[in-house]
Write a structure and sequence with these properties.
This protein is an alpha+beta fold and about 400 residues long. Helix content is about 45%, strand content about 25%. The strands form 3 sheets. The chain has a 6-stranded antiparallel sheet with strand order 13-12-11-16-15-14. Strands 2-1-5-4-3 form a 5-stranded antiparallel sheet, with helices on both faces. It is elongated, with a radius of gyration of 35 Å. This is PAS domain-containing protein. Pfam families: PAS_9.
Length: about 400
């Protein structure tokens, strides 16, 4: 009997969960590590099956084969955030029937490393696949990347946010709104459902969370993110090159055509080019001082604005333009434009054009001949987006060209 005592001591102190079941798949014995892993004692386990305890019958199918064939079998199982490889062997019980004995080896670390490796390889493969075709924009690439991940890596749902705009979402809006307030990789809850937000570049991706998903995300994202950001940087550089060449072509066209065109036609064409080239631009106007009054010469997006004229003291931005000119600026963005136009003598006129919108942002360029201001160009957006330094430089170059051009005309 001494050998049975040793055997019992061995299994009790085994650093892996171990068990014995009868031919009805009911537990007849569990060791201390099993109780610790599953946080259950003999009273809640002995005499019961996995179906009764955990609500699954996967183990029973494998154990049935072991009892019938009298051969060992292996299977994998997941419990909470752990993964086990279970080795099951046939064992003869005291009543002469056969049951099974099993040892569960914790394979979480290996399984987790395999998942990280597979995810890294799959995302790298998806990126290479996407790079074969032209990428229209950063938004296009990120959305296509997520769609491919959803398809090939069984990602059930996601949301894509850019700055404070929801580009695409399979979740309720309040989930996205809460994600917008988070910094870094964070887990958060909405109505008891857990989500993970993953920020990069100017984007945020939201996915469903679980203990293993959160852990995987924290490991995988640092591996994948540099690859994604490299592609985004490449797309951005290509877009800048394209914008640069387009700008140069339009500027050359403007210089070549200014001798041939009527003043109004020339300025209208140049304004349309500028609104097309500057990414933030939605609308625009060109104003010249004629006979002591500001007159709108060209417009994009402001119907009938060319009928407007008013004395300089009634400018839409009051003394703001004068202040900026005195400080030496020829191109500048006006913040809080809505407050300025709403107190202008021409407030009702500007209200009709939507300039009371709090998101209204104009970028102004001043035309000067010598020390005299002879007009300005206003490039506007209604999205609340600040104009980039590149956009300001583009307008600055056009202001120089147009100022030289206007010097030859009698205004």
């Amino acid at each position: 009997m001494r050998h049975l005592f040793y055997l019992q001591q061995f299994f009790e102190r085994l650093p892996s969960p171990a068990f014995i079941k009868d031919n009805k798949f009911r537990y007849v014995w569990i060791n201390k590590e099993w109780k610790k892993t599953y946080e259950l004692d003999d009273r809640k386990v002995i005499g019961k099956t996995d179906q009764k305890i955990f609500g699954n019958t996967i183990s029973e199918k494998i154990e049935s084969k072991v009892i019938k064939s009298k051969k060992n079998q292996e299977y994998e199982k997941e419990y909470k955030d752990k993964f086990f490889r279970v080795v099951v062997i046939p064992i003869r019980l005291g009543d002469g029937t056969y049951g099974v004995a099993g040892i569960e080896f914790d394979e979480t670390k290996r399984y987790f490393n395999d998942l990280v490796l597979q995810a890294n390889l799959k995302v790298s493969e998806i990126i290479r696949e996407l790079l074969v075709s032209p990428l229209e924009s950063k938004d296009f690439f990120v959305e296509r990347l997520l769609d491919k991940v959803q398809e090939k890596m069984h990602l059930e749902k996601y949301a894509l946010i850019k700055n404070d705009e929801i580009i695409k979402s399979f979740f309720p809006e309040n989930v996205c709104l809460k994600a917008m307030t988070k910094e870094g990789i964070k887990e958060f809850s909405v109505n008891t459902v857990k989500y993970i937000v993953i920020p990069f570049d100017e984007y945020k991706v939201v996915i469903n969370s679980s203990p293993i998903t959160l852990k995987l995300t924290n490991y995988i994202v640092p591996l994948i993110l540099p690859k994604v950001e490299n592609v985004l940087s490449m797309i951005e550089n290509e877009a800048r090159k394209k914008q640069y060449y387009t700008t140069m072509e339009k500027m050359v066209e403007a210089v070549i055509s200014w001798k041939k065109a009527k003043l109004e036609d020339f300025l209208q064409k140049v304004l349309e080019d500028i609104v097309q080239i500057i990414p933030e631009a939605e609308k625009g106007t060109v104003w010249l001082i004629k006979d002591g009054k500001y007159k709108c010469i060209a417009e994009v997006g402001y119907k009938d604005a060319t009928k407007l004229e008013f004395p300089p003291e009634k400018t839409s931005y009051g003394q703001k333009i004068e202040e900026m000119i005195k400080e030496g600026y020829t191109v500048f963005e006006i913040e809080g434009a809505k407050d300025l136009v709403s107190t202008s003598p021409l407030a009702e006129t500007f209200k009709k054009y939507g300039m009371f919108d709090p998101n209204f942002r104009p970028l102004l360029g001043i035309f000067k001949v010598g020390n005299n201001v002879i007009g300005n160009i206003s490039i506007d957006n209604f999205s609340g987006i600040s104009f980039s330094n590149e956009s300001k430089k583009i307008l600055e170059q056009y202001v120089k060209i147009l100022s030289n051009f206007l010097e030859e005309y009698e205004i």
